[in-house]
Amino acid sequence: MSEAVSFSPDPVVVSDKAVAKVKSLLEEEGNPELKLRVFVTGGGCSGFQYGFTFDELVAEDDALVEKGGIEIVVDAMSYPYLVGATVDYEEGLSGSRFVVQNPNASSTCGCGSSFSI
């Protein structure tokens, strides 16, 4: 596969807390080739849903964001929904999870894992 295209400015902002958590998870996995893939799928109570997975593969049309020694990958289909969004990591009473703060969303569900445009 070809190398992904790097964008400037970054299409997605990654918080320091998210970088630290990804680094921690990568150390646990023992595979430095893994990247955090952030994507959007249909479904959820507000129409679209955010997804997160680790992936070694990077497609030619993926957007690649590097920060603090980690890489975040966004596929071409999800890219328009995530431009300007911030990927963060939260720990609280409802558990710990990656979250997206998205200025493109016109509404979000109560738990913040789904949105509409």
Automatic annotation (TrEMBL):
NAD in keyword set: no
- Record note on cofactor: Binds 1 iron-sulfur cluster per subunit.
Q: Which GO terms describe its molecular function?
A: 2 iron, 2 sulfur cluster binding; 4 iron, 4 sulfur cluster binding; iron ion binding
Annotated Core domain ranges read 14-112
Pfam families reported for this sequence: Fe-S_biosyn (PF01521)
> Mind listing the GO biological process terms from this record?
iron-sulfur cluster assembly
**List of residues binding iron-sulfur cluster:** C45, C109, C111
Q: Which InterPro entries match?
A: ATAP (IPR016092), ATAP_core_dom (IPR000361), ErpA_proteobact (IPR023063), FeS_cluster_insertion_CS (IPR017870), HesB-like_dom_sf (IPR035903)
Keyword entries, A-Z: Iron, Iron-sulfur, Metal-binding
Q: Which NCBIfam families match?
A: iron-sulfur cluster assembly accessory protein, PRK13623.1
Record's family? Answer: Belongs to the HesB/IscA family.
Please describe what this protein does.
Answer: Required for insertion of 4Fe-4S clusters for at least IspG.
Subunit structure and binding partners: Homodimer.
Q: Which HAMAP family match?
A: Fe_S_insert_ErpA (MF_01380)
Q: What is this protein called?
A: Iron-sulfur cluster insertion protein ErpA
Q: Tell me what organism the protein belongs to.
A: Microbulbifer yueqingensis
